[in-house]
Amino acid sequence: MDHVFFVLSKVAWALLSPSNLIIILMIIGILFLLFNQIRTAKKILLPTGLIALIILAFPVGDLLIQPLEKRFATPNPMPAKIDGILVLGGGEDLKRSLSWQTPELGLGGDRYIAAKQMATRYPEAPVIFTGGSGSLQLQNQSEKEGGLARQLLTALDIAPNRIIIESDSRNTYENFRNVHPLLPKPDGRYLLITSAFHMPRAVGIANKQGIHVIAYPVDFRSNSDEYRKIDLDFFDHLKSLEPAWKEWIGLTAYYWTGKSSDWFPKPKAPESNASE
Transmembrane ranges (predicted)? Predict the structure, then answer.
């Protein structure tokens, strides 16, 4: 069932991605035009064109992604002790790393910077990476994904003997399922590093699997009100719209299929054993 869920999720996202959906609707509208179905074509092309214009002109994705990014804040104060630093894959760019035979970071590269910062802050804590290939076309590259993560972490001067790698998982549910047996303390407390917009879903899955995590969000994609202006930058606006739309769909799908503890997980009450 996990394999079916993985394949269906990829196919569904190919159809529901905002940019793909706009292109698909435009193609359908053009086909109606070619068959002289003018009225039907207008019903498809006019709203589709208007939506594309709005996305081009204004970062509407910020309105969708900010509730996700604000759900979990950076711990303040930071915990005095943790049992490990858990880093979810997604910060690396596997295709380009394979293409150029050199470690390449993607938009989520902040996850590695945060891993280094937390490894310095907690010198006794192991750094645990979990993430394989989430691409349907690159399902034979799990070892390369793990090797890439190891290269990046050691390049950041994290000692190899501190690093634990899990590289068979294809999505967030499998991240936690596969890494659970590798945790030094199954009932320990782990600092969870992932993108801010992805943190609610990640925490919900961790809670469902009985892994105690402390959220440490990074890789923010939205702009504050001060910088949210009309600027005609379609590509930049998709950087918040695409992940936001995907996460809201993911939160719903994971909750409906019993993979998450809540539809929109929220922080637990602050713990008392924390220090500056």
Answer: 12-35, 44-65
